[in-house]
Fold this sequence. Notes:
The complex is a heterotrimer of chains A (260), B (297) and C (329). With 260 residues, chain A is an alpha/beta fold.
Amino acid sequence: xxxxxxxxxxxxxxxxxxxxxxxxxxxxxxxxxxxxxxxxxxxxxxxxxxxxxxxxxxxxxxxxxxxxxxxxxxxxxxxxxxxxxxxxxxxxxxxxxxxxxxxxxxxxxxxxxxxxxxxxxxxxxxxxxxxxxxxxxxxxxxxxxxxxxxxxxxxxxxxxxxxxxxxxxxxxxxxxxxxxxxxxxxxxxxxxxxxxxxxxxxxxxxxxxxxxxxxxxxxxxxxxxxxxxxxxxxxxxxxxxxxxxxxxxxxxxxxxxxxx
Amino acid sequence: xxxxxxxxxxxxxxxxxxxxxxxxxxxxxxxxxxxxxxxxxxxxxxxxxxxxxxxxxxxxxxxxxxxxxxxxxxxxxxxxxxxxxxxxxxxxxxxxxxxxxxxxxxxxxxxxxxxxxxxxxxxxxxxxxxxxxxxxxxxxxxxxxxxxxxxxxxxxxxxxxxxxxxxxxxxxxxxxxxxxxxxxxxxxxxxxxxxxxxxxxxxxxxxxxxxxxxxxxxxxxxxxxxxxxxxxxxxxxxxxxxxxxxxxxxxxxxxxxxxxxxxxxxxxxxxxxxxxxxxxxxxxxxxxxxxxxxxxx
Amino acid sequence: xxxxxxxxxxxxxxxxxxxxxxxxxxxxxxxxxxxxxxxxxxxxxxxxxxxxxxxxxxxxxxxxxxxxxxxxxxxxxxxxxxxxxxxxxxxxxxxxxxxxxxxxxxxxxxxxxxxxxxxxxxxxxxxxxxxxxxxxxxxxxxxxxxxxxxxxxxxxxxxxxxxxxxxxxxxxxxxxxxxxxxxxxxxxxxxxxxxxxxxxxxxxxxxxxxxxxxxxxxxxxxxxxxxxxxxxxxxxxxxxxxxxxxxxxxxxxxxxxxxxxxxxxxxxxxxxxxxxxxxxxxxxxxxxxxxxxxxxxxxxxxxxxxxxxxxxxxxxxxxxxxxxxxxxx
Lengths: 260, 297, 329
């Protein structure tokens, strides 16, 4: 299958202002490359400050890469050209509390990406919003509600609706499942799996919970301090980790699983 | 699937309605708000309500005490001053001048401050710092002194008073707007908006302003009570409204010489100033409490 | 003798309209030296229960219980002040997000010295300052921070979350409590740090015979560290028993669903297939179902579930369900 998203030599370094000529630069992410196909999920695993959020921001276009390029369906994506990018790559954030604007109704919230990126008229937009809400398991009537009236799990569903409403091809889940309760997490995972089958999406799952990663992803990439330590098929990597950092990660989490 | 969590109520309380609900909870704040609205009403409809013209002299009834006194006359409800002008009409017209002017002053400085503050928040580096701080020199001089200096340069008169006080009030709005906008920029929904392709103006309009408007308004009420006092003081010093106009501070200055024979010419304008400042402060306090209560609920 | 014996504790929220039963007749017992886990998702009332035990709920919450004994003393008969005196001597609590629980304007050293128990300081008043410093350093050593000098001089924001949590535990240990309540102590941390904190708590439990009530929303996370587990749902008691029993043979459908959503159970099912979940979501306080609150979501719910089930005891494994899964084992 041809790759949906190809990333080559992507890296990011920040310049810190030192004294006059003493400008230090911090490498948040060292050059890495990978590619993703449709219907597949890539999991990016690592502890904090490993560069996972930087990678997410680079992919979605919030930051400009220092080197490297991102190609979608063969076309290079330019930084700053949000309109080109947002129809294909969307992101769901971790903290559902600050991810929805508290003074807009759900309808206005979901209307905005449509108004900025499509030519549909108002009735068509409302119809699309209603359909999308139903797809994520909410009711059409929820359109006129405000975000504070929803629970955490429902807010994540609304974020998901906002992500899929433009029918993208890649969705980045930046620790989106970490803050949910276990039963809601399972519901959300089922929903994501269904949508992947229906819409042919590719997911990039950023998480540090190996249980979800094991169940949900096809390929896995381990990051530590901005460097890729290991990449490969999830099952193989978890059964036979090569790098000792990966072994430590697995031991820390499976430690609790196996020893009962 | 989500059947269990629908609100059963018919209305959908927007954040604004929630704020109003919390605002209504304290009776003192409700009274203050009522007084504030009453003052606004007086300020707008003063010429229709007041029984006499504020500058008309009734030479046969000079220095009449208020109607509840033995020598008072019920047709001059609050008495007259030394030129025979009816106190009640003067006070009502004074509402337009002191209170109404303070409202306009705050509005103008709010708009200018918000514009400069937003520009400062949208840019980075030296330009942003410059915009944020270039009017800070105004903060270093006591507001009244600055207003006196400006009026002394431009000459007395109502419009010059207005500009002087506007200048004095702008810097605080710049700072508040810039801090609030920068805080909002860190939130995820602004990033989501930007990723959708919205340009800065659209983000400001839809995502940021609705969420900071309440902070701005509570700051505006603080500024308004300061503005009322500043206008009254300038009037008292004779630098504000010209002589026949019934501005409360000017009325106070006028009545000082007559304090022992006609105390009502002093305490009535003084009470009016007190009343409007307290009403404004109650509204401001109520709004700040409501904002805090809404955040906690 | 049981350290803590609570029977049918209910916490009512007094609102303008009818009072809402946030916690509905929950029973909890703790022995000396036991590590008990209290598991429940958000809205289950577990934090409320912990706060009711320690006695920090404000006036809008009303706490009733059939039995609330601490080391044999009946706390319901005492006045609020006496209750607080007894509890604060022997019970300590640590919270989520330790950095937010420490005073950001004073150094760790000063905060620790404040927490040191005055009664344990002997000597004249000019010696007390030195003793306080020594006691604070001792506390830090107890939680595994060897170089206490750097730690005592820093401010909370200069430390990591895991270190801050250790400092919180040190402050909790200052009074030598018999029971430590840990309210989701590792919610904001990664797995390596979580392990460190849990290991510290386990060592304190073994060395000092201190009981620990470990509150968490993740069942599978704490199964390694606890002896017994109590499960709560939406303010009601669901199941309680030894960790082995709860994890391997859960009797209640809700516990079964929790176990199913954990990664260990999912090792066997094929990749990228749908997980077993309960439909629906947790009821909010304003719209609590009558009777068994799991009713609307439970796959085994029938007409009898409109009435709240009684607690049945099977050799120490307690279940509150009309249609428990005991028969299927």
